[in-house]
Write a structure and sequence with these properties.
The chain is about 50% helix and about 15% strand. By secondary structure, the chain is α/β, with parallel strands linked by helices. It has one domain (about 5-185): HUPs (Rossmann fold, 3-Layer(aba) Sandwich). Helix 2 (about 50-60) links the parallel strand 2 (about 30-40) and strand 3 (about 65-70). It is elongated, with a radius of gyration of 21 Å. About 30% of the residues are buried.
Length: about 180
């Protein structure tokens, strides 16, 4: 019986509960699933590739058939390098479908033997994206239901210096205003 190996490529910046949902469900479909963290030179990531890999390794440690690796370059070339015959991709909305369809068709053109498998996330995760999680975290919102606990902790650590900087700037501004008022009096 042929064993099916798939890759689940993405930037995972940060990993979300939606990603974990697809990993868990993909691990039940494929004999082996490689979560492939992309080094995308066009994006300015919040977390380093090494940090994202560590978070994903911790999140997937309970799955015997899931591994986490990093890659750059073309997804189809990486898939062939690791011996994968399928690419797992998540689709949340029509806008995702249009983009993912173009990518799947290009991948098929470049490597006809590589299949793309689309999965819908669980309904409770259908609105979650890494970009939205970053924005909510940066604005001080509660992200506990959007990401695993480890990721929420790392995001708070990452955001804390920024919050401290903003608080310091606000204090300095208030002090300047107070001094200015005192000089006028």
């Amino acid at each position: 019986m042929k064993r099916i190996k798939a890759i689940y490529p993405g930037s995972f910046d940060p990993p979300t509960n939606g990603h974990l949902d697809l990993i868990e469900r993909g691990s039940k479909i494929f004999d082996e699933l490689v979560v492939a963290v992309l080094r995308n030179l066009e994006k300015a990531p919040l977390f380093s590739v090494a940090d994202r890999r560590k978070m994903l390794e911790a999140m997937t440690s309970g799955f015997d058939n899931v591994s986490v690796e990093t890659f750059d370059g073309l997804t189809v070339e990486y898939a062939m390098t690791v011996g994968a015959s399928a690419v797992l991709r998540g689709i949340r909305a029509i806008s995702d479908y249009e983009y993912e369809l173009q990518m799947a068709l290009m991948n098929r053109k470049l490597q006809p033997s590589l299949e793309t498998v689309f999965m819908m996330p669980a309904e409770k995760y259908s609105y979650i994206s890494s970009r939205l999680v970053r924005e909510v975290a940066q604005l001080g919102g509660n992200i506990d239901s959007l990401v695993p606990e480890l990721v929420a902790q790392k995001l708070r650590e990452k955001m804390d210096p920024a919050l401290k900087f903003v608080e310091q700037a606000e204090r300095k501004s208030a002090q300047r205003q107070t001094r200015s008022r005192k000089k006028r009096s």
